[in-house]
Inverse folding.
């Protein structure tokens, strides 16, 4: 892996992938309430002990899944192609970021519902600080007249509202994506 961690055995990697895939499938088909270690183990074709050995608990499994999505988006923001990554104007990057974050939340809405029942991820503060810095920096550049820190937090907070899973469950994801874009663009318009 090159990052100091031991290389994962092929069977362990296969089991990890099967467990994560099974959890996503259960979430998509049955919702957050379906995530029990017994159901995940059965769906993944592994023993419950394999899940506990790999993830430690239901919380550990959900943490791993949340972290995968968060780290992928962080990587895209820091080194991906524009407009999400560097090289585009601040306003275009901000719209791209909120589109990507909204899609992440929509695609993982049942995971987020399940995740809210668990203790916070150990890296929650790190993830939130990253988003906060990113949004604030872009807002300051695009709209120096705003309180970028507070406005950015309000914008991001809109994606953690109960409205999001309700709209996803109602099949209104396109409407939600359009509304998030309208919200961000309305903030970016100068008075």
């Amino acid at each position: 892996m090159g990052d100091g961690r031991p290389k994962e055995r092929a069977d362990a990697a296969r089991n990890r992938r099967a467990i994560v895939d099974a959890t996503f499938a259960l979430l998509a088909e049955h919702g957050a309430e379906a995530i029990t270690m017994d159901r995940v183990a059965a769906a993944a074709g592994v023993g419950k002990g394999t899940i506990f050995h790999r993830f430690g608990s239901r919380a550990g499994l959900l943490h791993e899944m949340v972290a995968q999505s968060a780290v992928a988006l962080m990587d895209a923001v820091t080194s991906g192609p524009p407009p999400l990554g560097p090289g585009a104007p601040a306003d275009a990057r901000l719209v791209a970021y909120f589109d990507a974050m909204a899609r992440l939340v929509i695609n993982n809405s049942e995971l987020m519902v399940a995740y809210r029942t668990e203790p916070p991820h150990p890296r929650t503060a790190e993830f939130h600080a990253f988003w906060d810095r990113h949004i604030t920096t872009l807002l300051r550049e695009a709209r120096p007249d705003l309180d970028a820190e507070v406005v950015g937090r309000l914008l991001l907070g809109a994606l953690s509202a109960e409205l999001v899973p309700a709209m996803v469950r109602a099949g209104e994801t396109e409407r939600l994506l359009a509304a998030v874009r309208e919200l961000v663009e309305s903030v970016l318009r100068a008075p």
